[in-house]
Amino acid sequence: MATPTLTRHSLDGALGPVHVDVRAGGRGSPRPAVVVVHGFKGFKDWGFFPPFAERVARAGMTAVTFNMSGSGVDAGGEPAHPDRFALNTYGAELRDLDVVVGALLRGELGTAPPTTLGLVGHSRGGGVALLHAAADPQVHALVTWAAIGRIDRWDEETRRRWRAEGNLEVVNARTGQRIPVGTALLDEAESQDPHLDIEGAARRLEIPWLIIHGTADESVPVIEGERLARAAGAELATWLPIDGAGHTFGAAHPWTPPVPACELVFDATLQFLASALLRST
How many structural domains are present in the chain? Predict the structure, then answer.
């Protein structure tokens, strides 16, 4: 098996450039591919994403990680674009994911078009990955880590203040940045757009889905994962709770191993993807 190499690419996204990393070996040979979708304050180089992508590539699949155009960070992970973060929405992230998947399937990311395609999404990225997978017949398998079960995530008092002030201040715990987020995200969350109905997407999904969630998740309650599993049904969805794990399964940025809960997540995800994607070829 060829040693995986890393290439970097830039695509036109909804709010600016989408920076993409591709890890693969034997790039001229078609093989399964996995696209990894980060969450609300995440980015492609955060914590567990690079080591997980390396594991995917070493397993003989193409691993694609990327920064949403509204992530607020540049290609190196520096918080250089708070203006884009302030304008980011679920719709923008879905458009960015469409762009990445389309480029991959057309062979425009330095590899042959894949034989099969899987998505892995964390937190908000899990919800976005699910919405995409439910609408795209070219996706063959889905894995979500601590995925959100709904896009409307704010209480009434927060909504009232957000409307009154015209923005909601979001603090980046990693950098200390305080970024005012405009009301476009709130408008979208209150729109009841069926295209953004995450539980509805779970009910429509027709591919194998592994749902992983920490039982002590402090950001997305484990009950949201349980509801998604029930919505999809036991025939398609495999529910894997990680006892005592939090939202990032013990990982932090920068990545500092060992992280036992993450290793469980990596192993289960890779086993599931290898089975689902290779079986579909």
Answer: 1
In this predicted model, what pLDDT tens digit does every residue of 194-233 receive, in sequence order? Answer: 999 999 999 999 999 999 999 999 999 999 999 999 999 9
Characterize the bridge pairing of strands 209-214 and 178-181. unpaired
Tokens of 223: 């009950």
User: For the chain, how many residues are written?
Assistant: 281
Q: Which residues, including other chains, have CB under 8 Å from residue 45's CB and lie 6 or more apart? A: 21, 65, 76, 77
Question: What CATH number does residue 182 fall under?
Answer: 3.40.50.1820
The residues, any chain, with a CB within 8 Å of residue 86's CB and separated by 6 or more, are 167, 179, 180, 181, 182
Rounded Cα–Cα distance for residues 65 and 278 (Å) = 20
Q: Taking the mean position of all CA atoms in its chain, how far away is CA 144? A: 8
Instruction: Report pLDDT for 175.
Output: 78
User: What is the per-residue pLDDT for 73?
Assistant: 95
Longest CA span, the chain: 58
Phi, psi for residue 159 in degrees, rounded to 5: -60, -45
Quick: pLDDT tens for 30-64.
Answer: 999 999 999 999 999 999 999 999 999 999 999 99
Angle at 15 between CA 121 and CA 78, to 5 degrees: 70
What are the beta bridge partners of residue 24? Answer: 5
Q: Where are the beta strands (DSSP E) in 75-215?
A: 117-122, 141-145, 168-171, 178-181, 209-214
- Angular region, 72: left φ>0, alpha ψ -120 to 50, beta rest: left
Structural domain span for residue 124: 5-152+161-279
